Amino acid sequence: QSVLTQPPSASGSPGQRVTISCSGSNSNMGSNFVNWYQQLPGTAPKLLIFNNDQRPSGVPDRFSGSKSGTSASLAVSGLQSADEADYLCAAWDDTLKCWVFGGGTKLTVL
Amino acid sequence: QITLKESGPMLVKPTETLTLTCSFSGFSLSTSGVGVGWIRQTPGKALEWLAIFYWDNDKRLSPSLRSRLTITGDTSKNQVVLIMTNMDPVDTATYYCAKAQRLKGGSGARAYYFDYWGQGTQVTVSS
What we know:
The complex is a heterodimer.
Chain A: E1 9-12, E2 18-23, E3 34-39, E4 46-49, E5 63-68, E6 71-76, E7 85-93, E8 98-101, E9 105-109
Parallel strand pairs in A: 1-9
Antiparallel strand pairs in A: 2-6, 3-4, 3-7, 5-6, 7-8, 7-9
Chain B: E1 3-7, E2 11-12, E3 18-25, E4 34-41, E5 47-54, E6 59-61, E7 69-74, E8 79-84, E9 93-102, E10 112-117, E11 121-125
Parallel strand pairs in B: 2-11
Antiparallel strand pairs in B: 1-3, 3-8, 4-5, 4-9, 5-6, 7-8, 9-10, 9-11
């Protein structure tokens, strides 16, 4: 059971926009920033969004993040088949004194 | 170019001690605001943070595994080593090391995020 809650799956057609949610509590997302990772099949997680809504260099602006209170969202616009992957959220937890992760959302491009 | 690579045994027996080495390049562990952490991913895909070694030689361990973990860093060799004792089949997972970066103006563990990850190493615990 992951500390951060994500829907197990999401889907969309090429060109569409999809959003993936991540919910937590006051001790993690309510107090700290959220990061998002993309994990392609058989590979390591790759940083997609940090500090709620910032993109590392090289990440397309089709990916955007937002946070409000104890919930965060990752939006993927202009969906491409290459976007099929697991997407995970992460945050520091002040009570547990560790980084916590979501269980991941598998994005399928129809 | 920043790269990290994990190395260690693929198979360990229950009760044995696991030693994993993270060898990295493209950054220095003596640079302010940098760290190297260990995260594992179970076969069910769940991620669990284990430990982190910081630029100032500070270190943090997962509270739930603290009694079994040791982390050390060698700036001159560009390596961070994780030791986990008393291995159990439930510890079977892919173990990743990752570079940690502190947000500008941030302080404390909460200000860090993992920006580059190694390819991971699969560890199976079985007799």
